């Protein structure tokens, strides 16, 4: 009797394997590593014992077999030491507050963002410095990609049948970075999310790709906040009418200037809540009707971005240069933080 | 070579409600909207045409309470028990 979930297939070279995977609809369009039984079992053997449990994944309602989860991690290029972080992210997106079904089936281009905090960043070589949103770092690339493959292959969020995104986004391939605590003047993001500094944590959010905030001209925190507020005041963002969380990723130079001028994280959140306002006349009449149907009315002659300062998550990541990023979310979701098994 | 199927899992054991099976033609059909404005418009057109061309009247209408979340299972169970068929519109 054959083992469930194990397939005997002919030996295939890299190009043949690539085609074989695509014919079965298992891939994301990029080459994958064959999830051979020995590679998958080696990955599972390295796992710590304090693993989260996995329920049915929507929209397929399939309860994933642990070997299948590990197989997706192998396909993504993960090493055994990467898997606990992938599993923590998977546990995060399964929490009700994340709204996995809605975020996978929507026409919105959201993707599962993973922000990593704590000591696992160094252990895995995760990048929270220069080009942290971009290519070039294996851990960033494969951890985000593993979660995306799990959601494609096990949750069934395959476009175009179930993932109905109008345009999608490049972040759907992989979307993972580390916070940069070494260059942050404030308490680490993971600690502000309620964890100890020596705990490793992932925070997941169904998010758009980063929107760049370029400010080379301002030399004060006040000036930088003016530019950030202007970038956030977008009439086309889900956060205007669906509301929900959004993320500000400050580059270290902007963060340093803000801190020098006395700005705390809480003060930044309050200031941006007050200043990131969308003039009513920047919103079309039809869209104003749509906002009203969602129960959203302007505050005076402006619309607000989400419901209050607490919806804006602030952290530091990136390298040298005068750029930061605003990351709007799907809206009907929450940022969920989960401890990485094994610390 | 032996590989692990990356799609392998077990179907969840959640109970499903039997679909109503012995209803007369009237009252058998529900139009179910994802609650976006386009979906409701589309379904109203479908309902009008079913009435005009097929004589199907007494068509039910339901909508998800939130366009950004999946349909609530209790609501789906209720509709499955009440109707034999549903036309689902996901138009934006």
From TrEMBL, chain A:
<protein>
    <submittedName>
        <fullName>Uncharacterized protein</fullName>
    </submittedName>
</protein>
UniProtKB/TrEMBL annotation, chain B:
<protein>
    <submittedName>
        <fullName>Thioredoxin reductase (NADPH)</fullName>
    </submittedName>
</protein>
<feature type="region of interest" description="Disordered">
    <location>
        <begin position="1"/>
        <end position="20"/>
    </location>
</feature>
<dbReference type="Pfam" id="PF24696">
    <property type="entry name" value="UGSC"/>
</dbReference>
<dbReference type="InterPro" id="IPR057767">
    <property type="entry name" value="UGSC-like_dom"/>
</dbReference>
<feature type="domain" description="UGSC-like">
    <location>
        <begin position="3"/>
        <end position="92"/>
    </location>
</feature>
